[in-house]
Amino acid sequence: MMNEELKWRVARIQKMMAEQQVDACLVTSNTNLLYLTGRLVSGYVYILPEGDPYYFIRRPQMEESNHRFMVRKPELMPSILQSEGVGMPKRLMVEADEMTHAEWLRYQSIFPNAELCDGTHHLRIVRAVKSAAELDLVRESGRLQSLAYESFPSLYRPGMSDNEYSVEMERKMRQLGNLGIVRIFGQSMEIFFGSVLSGENAQAVSTFDFALGGAGLHPSVPVGQNGTVPTDGQTFMVDICGNFNGYHVDQTRIFSVGKTTDAAYYAHNVSLEIHQMFQEKARPGVTCEELFENAWAIARKHHLEDHFMGTRQQAKFVGHGIGLVLNELPVVCAKNRMPLQAGMTIAWEPKFIVDGVGAVGNENTFIVHEDRDAECVTTANPMIVNLK
After folding, report:
1. pLDDT in tens, 123-144
2. Count of H helices and E strands in the chain?
């Protein structure tokens, strides 16, 4: 029996299905299975325009009940549906961006009379607006991640490399209950926990589409720390993901080895100014494009546009949705006229590279509200913390 939270999620998908004029939606990806069942299962969820979904579970073994069936393979779904009096679809929505071509052909053979259409983007739009229960989980992840971040200065020892420092920080995160996995959308994207970038490594270009990538420790994992030991005045940029309950939060803080330069403090304060702008303006109806352009306008006002969001290769976004995956919708970038809605959770990350120093600037996770400023759920000390 579905609880009220899962019914709310299904109802949102059914509303979307009606808008897209589909007869059924077949969910197969880990993220959306988690969204619709409340736990990770191996199987399929078959959603009709009305009523409860049908759950076809492969693993783990569960007791069969109303609308829930154990199956060895997806080919068994049509006969079970027909025995339940459910007709076959003429237009079936699937997650084309989350499956291989072979899987697409397999589902087409299972439902031979159906026109398959891609619902990946539409399902991501549904997930972009969180329920009250989901927002509480985001807040809790933010609270625990912030608690860990506040302890990070005490973990530093002189002479530590970025990798040695990250090991201690990751250990602290796990001690507080971080689940250790970062889910990410996109088959060409890979990430582990997060990154700790020091000194010149902060401007190294990564293979992946991150704001500041880092060279990584090995060509097979070209992102994050690379073993650099920062010198006096240089910074550690700490961007370790918080996932304590399935819902991710992003938070970046800056730690300096001794007092850093005036240019670094200045750029960091500009980042805080861009955060303030976002918190005040991120209201329902405001578009991602507006927020992106406002961020760049502030960077240009302070003559820091050449250092904003990277130097050798500047990121093309300043923020992104976050939730069950690290990179949810919306993307805060140029020409994206998608309006914000109450209940969206946005990771906002205006960052700068300062020559000879490394990275400065924070990242915070915000909840968009209907009638007030965006709520920041990542609350660790926002200033540059001196480690000496």
Report:
1. 999 999 999 999 999 999 999 9
2. 9, 19
